[in-house]
Write a structure and sequence with these properties.
It is a single chain. The protein has 269 residues and is α/β, with parallel strands linked by helices. The protein has one domain (11-268): P-loop containing nucleotide triphosphate hydrolases (Rossmann fold), CATH 3.40.50.300. It is 39% helix and 17% strand. The protein contains 12 helices and 8 strands. It has helices at 24-37, 52-56, 68-73, 78-81, 102-106, 115-119, 143-151, 169-182, 202-215, 228-232, 240-243, 248-268, and strands spanning 11-15, 42-46, 83-84, 90-93, 132-136, 154-160, 188-197, 219-225. An 8-stranded mixed beta sheet has the order 3-4-2-5-1-6-7-8, with helices on both faces. Strand 3 and strand 4 form a beta hairpin. Helix 1 crosses helix 12. The protein starts with 10 loop residues before the first strand and ends with a helix. 45% of the residues are buried.
Length: 269
Amino acid sequence: MSDPTRPRGPRIIAIANQKGGVGKTTTTINLGAALAQAGKRVLIVDLDPQGNASTGLGIESEDREFTTYELLLEEIALGDVIQPTSDKNLMIIPATVDLSSADIELISNEKRSFLLHDALRQTAMDGYALDYILIDCPPSLNLLTVNAMVAAHSVLIPLQSEFFALEGLSQLLLTIREVRQTANPNLRIEGVVMTMFDARNNLSGQVERDARENLGDLVFQTLIPRNVRVSEAPSYAVSVLDYDPNSRGAQAYQALAKELMQKQTAMTA
């Protein structure tokens, strides 16, 4: 039975696409930074063994003693795994390559699909007063991604503006449906965000039209452009909003955060 005296928890969003190179981690970092800039308290959970979200937010390898691996597989205090970033409203639970073996170790655990769900709902989380938790999923539909979907309220899908972009979606949507049927009946699709959009390229426009025709209102109005500043920012271990706040990429992620928050407001109204 839930405790009515506990504060309402954060909105948990899994950012997923089993296809690599679609801007998933980039979207996690910069959407998180944009929400934080708007005054929201945000936690990023790096669930990708590559640890790119951790690196992109300035968490050095030697500073990742405790990570999402320990969060899932060991009893560890949240204060030991949650790390601050250069933005006071943005925190992260980092990842290392150790996470790549978690799939095998989770198989024998009878609660294997619910470990992240339970970890993110422990009472110690209340002290962080979070508004959003963004989970950066690995580029595969493995047990880690399933954990993210079981833990999440919704799934945000970055979709690269390129040929065959929509073809890979069918398997992801099938996985979401299976999770709904077996473990998380309230899971919904937060939306699809078009990434690496090039307005000068006819193909980008065609992919956008196809996406809107097939997915309708699920597609965010905000388009994330192909922008060199977005690509450069991770090498400086900051979001594009810190690296070049006036760039088209930074402005696009601010617009995406605003659109996301407006959707949340409309849902709760």
